[in-house]
Amino acid sequence: MSSTIVLNQSNIVNAENNTFVYKFPNSVHFPNHQIAIQSVSMYYSWQNINSTPLDNNKLTISYYSNDTLTTNTITIPNGLYEITDINNYFQYWSIQNGLYLIDEVGDYTYFFEIMVNPTYYAIQINTFQIPIALPLGFTAPENWIGYPTTPYNPSLTILSNFNNIIGFPAGFSTPLNSSISLSYGSMNEEGSYAVLSSDFGLTPNVQPNSNVLFSVSNINNKYAIPSSIIYSLSPSVAIGNQIIEKPPQFSWNKLLPGTYHELRLQLLGTDYKPLTILDKNMTILLVIRDVKEELMFLGGKN
Questions:
Q1: Contact 126, 194 (CB under 8 A)
Q2: Does a cis peptide bond (omega within 30 degrees of 0) precede residue 53?
Q3: CATH code, residues 2-46+209-301
Q4: For a 10 Å CB count at each end of the chain, is N or C smaller?
Q5: CATH 2.60.120 domain extents, the chain
């Protein structure tokens, strides 16, 4: 009545781990057949920040280095990030570029950060004033950027696409100092500045691809765009955990009539672009049935 096809890491054909090819032992004729997802086992490991195809891994930072205004691009390495992970990378970047001080107990003090503000269901950006002289009890690193003539804050400019991750408008910049008129956020007397994504009426979208779309070659699904989509998986586990998906019932999709040498399945994001999957430990079961045989079987039962 039906046949099961098993796809696992031995069927993956590319470095991004998003394309599976199943080669039939012999050519198979499918005159009137349908296909469906039977089960999926995979880890929540597809990237939410990368240079291609998402192009959402950059922002710029401006600060004074010995009274010379410098603007650098912060490029976040491709990967799967929570907001805390992004902030950890900002701290790493600050260490590499001398934008930090060391307090009396050896802890590092940074001058900008990003964090989750659960009360407002928002992402919060904080920047802190860089002093004009070394504070009492602090030590400057060897690559320290230098003290400015007047206090200022580093300024972050949120570039396009990364802005969607944290819920800020593209092009928004945090102020360098309190003399700049503030349209959003607030700065206290010590020069600490804070702004929320909710101030703009926006919400963060930390995982742009909250669903995995399963695309199978030679599908005739006239109701789907693209027509090859046969299933959508939404993870209900934390990042890095195993997803075990068993549809309560099969959603059958018609295979185009013809002779098949192979089937190709691809994992796409919600933008219909191929995902980059970090963990190739996946098992996907497909089931194929002959519609006429199925009807005959049901008719025989009646």
A1: yes
A2: yes
A3: 2.60.120
A4: C
A5: 2-46+209-301
Enter the tokens of residue 104. Answer: 């009396």
> pLDDT of 193-236, one tens digit each?
999 999 999 999 999 999 999 999 889 777 777 889 999 999 98
- Note the pTM of the prediction, 2 decimals: 0.84
